[in-house]
Amino acid sequence: MTGSVAILGAGTAGAGWAARFALMGWSVRVFDPDPGAAARVASVLDNARRALPGLSDRRLPPEGDVVHAATISQAVSGADWIQESVPERLDLKRTLYQKVQEHAADDAIIASSTAGFTPTALYGQGARRCQIVVAHPFNPVYLLPLVELVMAEDAPGWALDRAEQVLRGIGMMPLPVRREIDGHIADRLMEAVWREALWLVHDGVATTAEIDEAVRMGVGLNWAQMGPFESALLSGGAAGVDQVVSRIVPGLDLPRTHLTEMPEATEALARIVADQAGAQAGGRPLEELERIRDRNLVAVLRALKWAGWGAGAHLRDVDALLENGAAEIAGPIRSVARTVPLDWVDHNGHMTEARYMQVFSDATDRVVELMGCDAAYIAGGASFFTVESHIRHLAEAKPGAALHVESLCLAAEGRKLHLFHRLFAEGREVATAEALLVHVSLETRQAAEPGAELARRMAEIARAHAALPRPAGVGRSVGQKPL
């Protein structure tokens, strides 16, 4: 699903929303009277182009246009979704909604990025209530999937359904909040941690760097994939839930935290926090820190995707939505279409050798799947093993480059399957791979005849490709001089 979105306010959240929508194929109109808004959006878009496509093992849709509107009416007229990300001032937001509703379609969703206000608080006078929802994201919006979705009690069902459909369509994971509450869910949790962190600094117990180490080296890693309750359950060991409860309940009466107390917001405390946090950055500029953050998040999210857990399970679902559908077999099969992710890059600044093998392995998997060797066939006890392969490296593939593989079936005779893959980056051929596979029984681990339907599909594709020209590189060996 794609459409037209209006972004009102191009700060950190607004620019992130613009990037997320644009990279998922939406047409984006941005309104922000700040003269620096266009440059800010362009910078965030550049970061997003480097990072977001690499989360997917599929090609994202063609990028949507991003234009800057001179007025609110130009931005919101005809928009399917309107995302408000102006400063957290209730009067400002209410006034904005009245202006927006003069020009927006009656069925357009008006979503606020607010971290604290509820939909009921946002309505104010004269607002059409059913249009206004809270869609609170997390920074960077173009990478982190969570968006807290808050509706008023009297909101119509269609508004929730539409909101979830749009947000899932741009790769986000909407979390409906059961009832309105200031601060929603995640910010209330983060605020509790933030309060205690400030007390630890205030009381001289720990520096900002030590607190960050405590989170990122311990609890943060657990919470990234299971959250506090699942993690606590595991801490109970074999005794399970009862042991967890026996540990937690007595501790709630102990004065271990300041809970909702806040240290006095003095200039001295602010200076300590600023100096220590600045020292942690090591003099790195903000732009470099943003790129480091994005690289780290991509690595963590892709690891969770491999495990199929937490946010990684969500990313697998997003890939399923981006599936390219049935492939044509009359010509070379487009077996892979994806982007070079940041964690595929080596010390030379291009895609590392092992990832070429991964791309070609994925291409082989796709071809044999089209022939009928899919998950169900493999579960039945048979598959293909690669017995020989040869890769030629012709040019570089840089991070963020759009990749695709064109695959040919050179021969399919009995138990043998002979494939040739050509890898393109941004339309330029950068590598080829030739592979010989043998059909095997997974029980005996020995060569075996393929099933009748698989054999039929192998022969069908081999016949379709027999008349195609043989590309350069077929049959070459290591060290052979170029022709």
UniProtKB/TrEMBL annotation:
| InterPro entries per record | 3-OHacyl-CoA_DH_NAD-bd, 3HC_DH_C, 6-PGluconate_DH-like_C_sf, 6PGD_dom2, HotDog_dom_sf, NAD(P)-bd_dom_sf
Instruction: Pinpoint the 3-hydroxyacyl-CoA dehydrogenase C-terminal domain residues.
Output: 183-237
Superkingdom classification of source: Bacteria
The residue ranges crossing the membrane are none
Which Pfam family name is an example for this entry? 3HCDH
Lipid metabolism among keywords? no
Keyword terms of this UniProt record: Oxidoreductase
Residues in domain 3-hydroxyacyl-CoA dehydrogenase NAD binding?
4-178
On whether Oxidoreductase is a keyword of this UniProt record, the answer is: yes
What is the name of the protein in this document?
Thioesterase family protein
